[in-house]
Amino acid sequence: MALDRKTSARVLREISRLLEVQNDNVHRVRAFANASRVVERLEGDLEAMVESSELLSVKGIGKGTFAVLEELAAGRKPKVLEDLENETPVGVRAMLEIPGLGPKKVRVLWQDLGAVNLGELEYACRENRLVELPGFGARTQERLLESIRFARHANERRLMNEAWTAATALEIALEEHPEVDRVVIAGEVRRFCETVDAVEMVVVAEDEDAAGAILGTHLSDVERSGPGRWIGVTGNGFAVRVHVVAPPAASAALVRATGSDDHLNALSRRASTLGLELCDDGLWQDDKRLECPDEEAVYRAFGCRWVPPELREDGTEVAWAAAGALPELVTTEDVLGVLHNHTTDSDGVATVGEMAAAARVRGWSFFGVADHSPVAVYANGVTADRLHDQWRRIDELNRDGGGLRIVKGLEADVLTDGTLDIPSGCEDGLEYVVASVHSAFRLSQERQTERIISAVAHPACSVLGHPTGRLLLARPGYAVDLERVLQACLEHGVAVEINASPYRLDLGWRWARRALTLGLKLAVDPDAHSIEGLDDVRWGLAVARKAGATASDLVNCGDIDEFLESRRRC
Ligand SMILES: [Zn+2]
Ligand SMILES: [Zn+2]
To answer: Beta strand pairing status for 229-233 and 199-204?
Structure first.
């Protein structure tokens, strides 16, 4: 293999950067960085100079760096690089590619903040963890967040909220064209899937070619992939699939473009007994296209009630719809309040008063403050003194609450032994505790399960926070026997959280549905760290709807005092 200067220089530089991330000897870090520059500017045949060892006499090339070049010349991956790659998680190496992040900063993020990939880093930014971090700050955090989002566009799947934003922007843009009758978001975005692989929409227009030309003005790489089917890419890299249909076919096409495969299969099993065929160009019975002015009409032809898009997943919903047994899904209007939120007393950016005012604007009647507990030093967890001080302020605010009651809570870390991190002397004053795991993710499944079960058995615990610990597209949850955990929640009257942060959505809808089947209460919580964060509740509600939850299944929609009292009686 011919040894070229560019590759060699890049490898030497990579080694230098990884050594620095690993906090290796500063002279060694510099030696590799120097050698990289020397090799890049070298005149003459690099390979011959390595072979004759002539390179060793060039200033800036030492024994260690020369050995690396010898291995490269022999067509091998240098041992030192291989070792460094083994010692540095892949996600940490990816951070080095983010503009503005040098090895020193990456080291702090990895070692001090504990972030091992871009997803975790993004989440830490969202939780304001970088503001106080040495060498960072609010501005760096903001810039970093932008860069990470950009880098993640290379990923295949996207978070629900990002996909929704991209889809909505495109919908609005396309609707402006007079040639377009109607635009409807379909596919995974309309079903509110936790992550989404492409934005999908139905464009209703008489003239397919004209619609295709319009797509070209809003998307790049637009191509016709089949009759009525177009693909393209948004400005920020989202893949888009568009179904262009004529008005008479719109409702049938929308049902087809929205449902999962399982949903459509369940429909088509009914179709054969009814002599129906659901196609892109309409719903057909024998040789006749049925008139379907809306989706309701399509489902009616199948002998079903209209199925809310969130439910069009595993096919069971078709049987419910046929039996008239679809649940009356919870809506935003049903929500009276939320329990899991942070303020400036821990790692939030708005004060208790500001958050409460924002809750009032949203029409809520209760608002739970659950700042981090003392052991969460990285998140400025509250001490007993600070918690008592917070309660004084809450009492003050509640005196003239204007229809809003602020509830005194705490997001208590579940310690490794399963006890809750509640500051001493605070148990009686706390109205509720959200118990959350923030550490020791690598315990065995047995120990993790026991740990969480003892946490929910604690009499102060009312809600189990983000039950699996997953970060979507960033890290899987910890190993835990969720079935046993849910049973324990049931036994102790503890509600299970659907953490509504679009980075978490934890529980996911399948387990949330299982929780409902067991008879558990769900708590949809924005885990807000800012006023805008409160609006994340919509993503959590979407998960609750996917699970089939009605208003009475959510602690958010009932008498909060009754719920908290019932927990205390358990
Ligand atoms: Zn948490
Ligand atoms: Zn939290």
So the answer is: unpaired
pLDDT at 286: 85
Question: What is this structure's pTM?
Answer: 0.80
The DSSP call for residue 348 is: -
The protein residues having their C-beta less than 5 angstroms from ligand 2 (an ion) are: 411, 527
* Domains in the chain with CATH codes: 1-88 (1.10.150.110), 263-326 (3.30.210.10), 332-569 (3.20.20.140)
Backbone φ and ψ of 119, nearest 5°: -65, -45
CA count, 13 A, side-chain hemisphere, 11: 24
What is the whole-number distance in angstroms between the Cα of residue 340 and the centre of ligand 2? 6
53 and 116 in contact (C-beta within 8 Å)? no
Q: Encode pLDDT of 34-74 as tens digits.
A: 999 999 888 888 989 999 999 999 999 999 999 999 999 98
pLDDT at position 568 is: 60
Q: Which ligand ends up closest to the CA of 341?
A: 2
H or E, element range at 182: strand 182-186
The per-residue pLDDT for 193 is 97
Indicate the residue type of 499: N
Q: Which residues pair with 525 in a beta bridge?
A: 499
Query: Which amino acid, residue 29?
Result: V
Distance 202 CA to ligand 1 centre (A): 38
Q: How far is the CA of 263 from the centre of ligand 1 (A)?
A: 34
Nearest-angstrom CA–CA distance, 338 and 367: 6
Nearest ligand to the CA of 413 is 1
413 burial (CB, 10 Å; 0-12 / 13-18 / 19+) is buried
Ligand 2 centroid, distance to 518 Cα (angstroms): 25
> In the beta sheet, which residues pair with residue 185?
201
Q: What's the alpha-carbon Rg for the chain, to the nearest Å? A: 28
CA nearest to 452, candidates 460, 442, 465: 465
Residue 29 in this model has a pLDDT that exceeds 80: yes
Reported as half-sphere exposure (CB side, CA atoms, 13 A), residue 146 has a value of: 8
Kindly give the distance from the C-alpha atom of residue 108 to the centroid of ligand 1, in angstroms, as a whole number: 21
| 242, 243, 246, 248 alpha-carbon torsion, rounded to 10° | -130
Report which bound ligand comes closest to the CA of 348.
2
pLDDT classification of 152: cutoffs 50, 70, 90: low
Cβ atoms of residues 153 and 207 within 8 Å:
no
Q: How far apart are CA 344 and CA 482, in angstroms?
A: 33
Centre of ligand 1 from the C-alpha of residue 89, in Å: 24
